[in-house]
Write a structure and sequence with these properties.
The chain has a seven-stranded mixed sheet, with helices on both faces. It is built from 13 helices and seven strands. The protein has helices at residues 3-20, 26-44, 69-76, 82-87, 94-103, 121-126, 143-160, 196-206, 237-256, 268-274, 298-313, 320-329, 334-356, and strands spanning 111-115, 135-140, 163-168, 181-187, 207-219, 278-284, 367-374. It has 377 residues and is α/β, with parallel strands linked by helices. Helices cover 46% and strands 14% of the residues. The longest helix has 23 residues, at 334-356. It binds S-adenosylmethionine. Residues 38, 41-42, 88, 116-118, 121-122, 140-142, 145, 170-172, 187-189, 192 line the site of S-adenosylmethionine.
C-alpha cells in the first residue's frame, strides 16, 4: 500500500470510528423506537397467531442461552409479528396493577370502558381485578384489532368471570350511553389525538357521577436523556444537543401535522382539570422495560426479538421517510437530518450485533403516567 493510500485509509477509518462513536445511547435509540411503536402499534400488531408463541417459551426448542436466539425467532416468525404484540403484555408489573386496582376501587367497578382498546391487551390485564359478572366494553376504530380482541375474549371470559364486549367506534363520539360506566380508561390513545380534550370530554360523559376517568399516557421525550452504561455519562454536549434537536423537531412536527403528541402524559392533569374532572391523582408506572444480559426470560427474549425486527426491517421508528416528514414539519432541514440519519443508522447496526450476541444493555427507563380524575357528584 502506498503512503497516499494509507492516508486515505486512516481518514476512512477515523470517519467510521467517529460514526460508530457511542454518543447516542441505546436508551435514546430505544426511546426513539418506543415512541414510534406507540404511534404505530396498530400496524405492528396486525397479526397474532398465538400458537406460534410456543416458540418463545423456555421449555420449547429455543434454549435460553442460545447466542442467536432472538435472531432465530425473527427468522422463524418473520411474518407472524406475534412477538411484537406479546411483548406489550410485559408493559406492567402485575403487583403494580393490583395496587392500582385497590387505589381505584376496582372491586366496585361493574362497568369498565377501554377506549382505543386495540386488541384489548389492557382489558385482559385488568379483568382479573374486577368483580364477578363485570362487563368490560372495548371501543376502537379498527375492526381488525377488534376481531382479535373478540377471539381472545372467547377464550378468557370464563376464566375471569368477566364479560367482554368489543365494539367499533370513534373515541370522539363514543357509542355508549351517558352515565353508564363506573370507569373509562385509555392507554396510549391520547398521544394520537389531534384534540385529546374531545376524547376526555366523551370519557367523562359516559362515566357515572363519582366514577373514574383514567388516562395512561407517556412522556416519550424523557428517555432521550437516559444512559445505558457508565462510559456514556462522559458525553459530548454538542452531539447530545444535535440529537435532542432532531427528537424535539420530530415530536413537534408530529403535533404540527395534527397527528398527536407522543409526550402528552405530562400535560394530562391540566387537560383533566380543564375537562371538569375532580379529585385528580397522578401515578407513574414502576415498570422498567429493561434488557440486561443474560436474556434468560421470555420477556427479555421478546423485547430483544422486537428490537431486532425493527432494526432489520427499518420499522418501529427506523423509517427514513416518516422521520424526515416529522422533522421537516418541526422546522428542520433535510441536510441536518441526513447527517443524523447516517450516524444513527451505523449506531443501530452496532446495537443489532449486540442484541444478537445478547450483550446489549438497556436500563429500560420510561415515563408512563396514570392520570386519574373523578366525575363530580
Ligand atoms: C397505540 S394503540 C393502543 C391500543 C391499546 N390501548 C393498548 O394499549 O394496547 C392506539 C389505538 O387507538 C385506536 N384509535 C386511534 N384513533 C382512534 C379513534 N379516533 N377512535 C377509536 N380508536 C382509535 C387505534 O386503532 C389503536 O388500536
Amino acid at each position: 500500500m502506498s503512503i497516499g493510500h494509507r492516508g486515505v485509509y486512516r481518514v476512512v477509518i477515523q470517519h467510521v470510528k467517529t460514526l460508530l462513536g457511542r454518543q447516542i445511547s441505546f436508551a435514546r435509540v430505544f426511546g426513539f423506537i418506543c415512541s414510534f411503536l406507540l404511534s404505530h402499534f396498530p400496524l405492528i400488531a396486525a397479526a397474532r397467531p398465538s400458537q406460534k408463541l410456543g416458540l418463545l417459551l423456555p421449555n420449547r426448542s429455543f434454549y435460553v442461552s442460545e447466542p442467536y436466539l432472538a435472531s432465530d425467532l425473527i427468522q422463524k416468525e418473520k411474518h407472524s409479528e406475534s412477538h411484537l404484540v406479546e411483548s406489550r403484555e410485559y408493559w406492567w408489573n402485575n403487583d403494580y396493577l393490583e395496587l392500582l386496582s385497590q387505589r381505584l376501587d376496582f372491586k366496585h367497578c361493574n362497568r369498565m370502558a377501554d377506549i382505543g382498546c386495540g386488541q384489548g391487551m389492557m382489558s385482559f390485564l385488568l379483568a382479573p381485578f374486577l368483580p364477578e359478572n363485570a362487563l368490560i366494553t372495548g371501543i376502537d376504530s379498527e375492526t381488525k384489532y377488534l376481531k382479535r380482541a373478540k377471539q381472545k375474549a372467547r377464550k378468557v371470559s370464563t376464566k375471569h368471570q368477566v364479560s367482554f364486549n368489543f365494539v367499533e367506534g370513534d373515541a370522539q363520539r363514543l357509542p355508549l350511553e351517558s352515565n353508564s360506566q363506573d370507569m373509562a380508561f385509555c392507554q396510549t390513545l391520547l398521544i394520537h389525538m389531534q384534540q385529546p380534550e374531545k376524547v376526555l370530554g366523551e370519557m367523562k360523559r359516559i362515566v357515572k357521577k363519582g366514577g373514574y376517568v383514567v388516562a395512561i399516557e407517556p412522556n416519550n421525550l424523557a428517555s432521550n436523556l437516559m444512559f445505558d452504561n457508565y462510559s456514556q455519562t462522559d458525553y459530548n454536549v454538542e452531539e447530545m444537543l444535535d440529537f435532542l434537536e432532531i427528537r424535539l423537531r420530530c415530536e413537534k412536527g408530529k403535533r404540527q401535522l395534527g397527528e398527536g403528541f407522543n409526550s402528552i402524559g405530562d400535560a394530562l392533569p391540566d387537560l383533566f382539570a380543564k375537562a371538569g374532572l375532580s379529585d385528580l391523582e397522578v401515578f407513574i408506572s414502576d415498570k422498567s422495560l429493561n434488557l440486561i444480559p443474560p436474556y434468560n426470560s421470555r420477556e427479555k427474549r421478546l423485547r430483544a426479538a422486537q428490537l431486532i425486527e425493527w432494526i432489520e426491517n427499518q420499522t418501529g421508528g427506523f423509517g427514513y421517510d416518516e422521520n424526515l416528514r416529522y422533522y421537516k414539519a418541526g422546522g428542520g432541514g433535510k441536510k441536518s437530518f441526513d447527517a443524523y440519519w447516517q450516524k444513527a443508522y451505523r449506531y443501530q447496526q452496532n446495537m443489532l450485533t449486540e442484541l444478537k450476541n445478547q450483550e446489549c444493555f438497556l436500563s429500560g427507563g420510561n415515563l408512563m403516567y396514570v392520570v386519574v380524575g373523578r366525575v363530580p357528584e
